[in-house]
TrEMBL record:
This is LPS-assembly protein LptD. One of its GO terms (biological process) is lipopolysaccharide transport. It comes from Ketogulonicigenium robustum. InterPro entries: LipoPS_assembly_LptD, LptD, LptD_C. Involved in the assembly of lipopolysaccharide (LPS) at the surface of the outer membrane. PANTHER family: LPS-ASSEMBLY PROTEIN (PTHR30189), LPS-ASSEMBLY PROTEIN LPTD (PTHR30189:SF1). Residues 1-35 form the signal peptide. Residues 285-647 form the LptD C-terminal domain. One of its GO terms (cellular component) is transporter complex.
Amino acid sequence: MAPTYLDRKSHPLRSLLAALLVSSSMVLSGGAAVAQQQADQPTLLADQIVIDDEGRLVATGHVQVFHQGTALTASEVIYDRDSDALTLSGPILIQRPDGTVISAEAGQLDQELRGGLLQGARMVLDQQLQLAANEVRQSPNGVTRLTRVAATSCQVCGTSTPLWQIRAARVTHDTESQQIWFENAVLMVRDVPIAWLPALRVPAPGVARARGFLAPGLVTSTSLGAGVRLPYFLPIGDSRDVTLTPYLAANGKALQADYRQAFSFGRLRVNTLVGRDEILPDDLRYYIDAAGDFRISPGTTMHLQLQQISDTAVMNNYGYSYADRLQTGAEVLRINNNILSTFGFWGYRSLRGSETNRSLPPYLAFGRWEQDVTLPYVGGRLTYGAEYAGLWRTDDTPGPLGRDVSRLSTFAEWSRNWTLPMGLRLRTEAASYVLAYGINDDPAYYDQAVRVQPSIATTLSWPLMRRESGGRTQYLEPIISIGWADGYGRNVPNEDSPIVELDTANMFALQRYPGQDAVESGARMGIGLRWGFVDPSGWAGGLTVGRILRQDFADSSPISSGTAERANDLLLEAELVSPAGFSLDARTLINDKLDGFGKSELRLNWYHSNYNLTAAFINLPEEPWEDRPRKITELTLGGAYRFNDTWRVSSDLRYDFAASQIMRNGFSMQWQNECVVVDLSVSRRYTSALYVEPATEFGLSVNLTGFSVGGVRRASSACGT
């Protein structure tokens, strides 16, 4: 056979065919292989390759074609130079570089393996979504059209019916836009039609940000009744997106918008809701919750926050947030080597029934500058700076309810550590504050006041360590601290230190008050002992015991903190960690007679691959100074358990023993397989916010996985196992 009618065009299979003809009319059998040398041309492997009487190249027996990342497998491939096409006989398997897998019974493709028609085909996208169709027509531009399609992400074994599927007359998959369009689509669950849609568009598997509807949610609450949420995600470029969620309920309707934007220098988030309902039928209800973090310059950041509501119950009613205080304002922070500076302004709004916004106070402004240096001759670290704080109340009532306070202070703090013979550690601290106050609308105090507050303390400790033969390490550290502090000048209101806590973090500190308006007057001595161990098996634990002895009692300090009349209260803290994921933390104050407990808390955590348990118990004695007119004894429980890869349950409970009342409880259950996630939840919350009644909420969410990113979990077992 003369090859004179062939030319050497760049078409790979034509070149391959011409090469075969120039060599001769031949039959290659027994695992013959022909490979084109050029990198952009295909490689053909087959048991047998022949040229028939019509000049077509016929490859049979385990035929494989590789071209630009695409791999094709078939029982027979026929290449016709006139049509420049491949005729395929099944079973056919096509694997593309983007993860798409296509199987078919028969078909025809162009010689680039990009366009053509496949019959009896099944296409799998990103190992998640599979589409079975009578015909699959592919275009070189990346658009695939399927007819009479059944789509599902469920595992299909033989002729079994998947848990869910979408049947459509036509489906179009565009690889460039990464979208899938369904025409005349019917959602079926176990072959039972559930919903019909004339058109449906979903993101292709593997897409991180695609425009379209997200999984809907069914919600039932005692305040709004039964309702449904239909979130719609809309990306706006590469750095912005918004999620619009219509909420339709029996007793109201609302639209929620969640906006996000990323900048090269920060990020912004805005969550809003606008709605009308039968709870307040004459009012337009809304909330705005916005926050932004920005980098103004190297070392300088700014935080912005805006929280506004139409009424105190709107966020609770719509299940957005159960916060009982709102905060709006801005804060700038700059850290440059050893210099820190910050300033800001905040406005607060309380939703608590026990608080009045006019006297909260609702407005606070602050600024602080400080520098940290090492002293060359004296040694140690010196921190000095200045601070401003001002708070304003809108109540005009003279006294604490309407008092406005401004404070300007300068300060210097010095500390140095020494290591003495035998491993003794010595630390000395000294500080001095000069504060100037401006006080308005409170006849109990002067309009102007100046105070000086010096303090000094020395702490001596002896850390000891013992290593045992099995690798276990124990440490023991006795500590003693002697300090003195006082305040000179006119009395001022205590605005920033109404609550004082005593724990191991501040037991030997120079000052236990969190602010500057109060000072621990007189001499004091703290004694304590720390013991702990670390075992190679994973066990670890520790125990701390401490007590503070005072020369004078501070009448302004709350009793329950363990720092005033009960200055001799014993502080006891313990912690324990096990290799099995169990941990315990406990703290309590025991009175000087060792027969009563003050503030106490206990926390237990147990984390495992299949479950986690948390428990917290807190006991707070009655303390009007801390706005606690009654004793609080609460237990909080939470846990989750995964029975297997399919079932998972979780619950939480908060109970107040002193009030004999459940504060919050909830339960949720999740069922999941490789193609669907079902979440069912119920919760009830009691709140002290004004005009907010206790509410029970039921939630149901069904998510058909297989679309977008992370939407599917691999089947736990293969067919037939």
